[in-house]
Write a structure and sequence with these properties.
This protein is an all-alpha fold. The chain has 10 helices and no strands. Helix 2 packs across helix 4 (60-72).
Length: 178
């Protein structure tokens, strides 16, 4: 989460965007706290975040914006068109999160959730077990992950909403030979 916050801060600085940096930082740090891949009861976690922000004496406006951002910024919400439009602060956090997702740790997370959330060891055991049965299985699994990431990179090209995020994404695409 701190990588997302640092990327968001960089986007604000490089693009010289007029946003409330507290709202951006808080949203960046809290965005995964309510992710249904991480928690069982999203509604309860949203209430918990609301109480936390109140205890920190955040304004009602800031609380509403932070909660709106973290509930509507996910890639799946955008793809399913079930999310509500984001403010500029939300777009910055969304871009930062997506850029973070295509780094090395993001790729590992993809493998983790690709294994049904059972972890990298589960994925490696599955790959190794397949390897003993069918010689090309590891290559096929890796190829499918690479194809997914390549498609994700190009999809993100269309989705980035800030100039610096777009520049960083293009740098990553060039570096990765996609």
């Amino acid at each position: 989460m701190s990588r997302v916050a640092r990327l968001a801060e960089t986007i604000i600085r490089e693009d010289q965007l007029p946003v409330d940096s507290f709202v951006v930082a808080a949203s960046a740090y809290l965005h995964d706290v309510i992710d249904d891949k991480v928690v069982d009861d999203v509604a309860a976690k949203i209430k918990e975040v609301h109480v936390l922000l109140q205890s920190l004496e955040c304004s009602k406006t800031d609380i509403e914006e932070i909660l709106h951002i973290i509930q509507n910024m996910s890639f799946s919400k955008e793809m399913s068109q079930s999310g509500e439009p984001l403010s500029l602060a939300g777009k910055i956090v969304q871009d930062a999160d997506r850029l973070e997702a295509i780094g090395a740790l993001g790729i590992l997370r993809t493998a983790y959730y690709g294994g049904g959330g059972k972890g990298i060891q589960f994925m490696m055991n599955r790959l190794c077990r397949k390897y003993t049965v069918k010689r090309r299985s590891i290559a096929e699994e890796v190829r499918s992950l690479i194809i997914f990431m390549k498609n994700y990179y190009y999809c993100l090209r269309e989705c980035t909403q800030t100039m610096h995020a777009n520049w960083l994404l293009n740098e990553k695409i060039l570096w990765s030979n996609f």
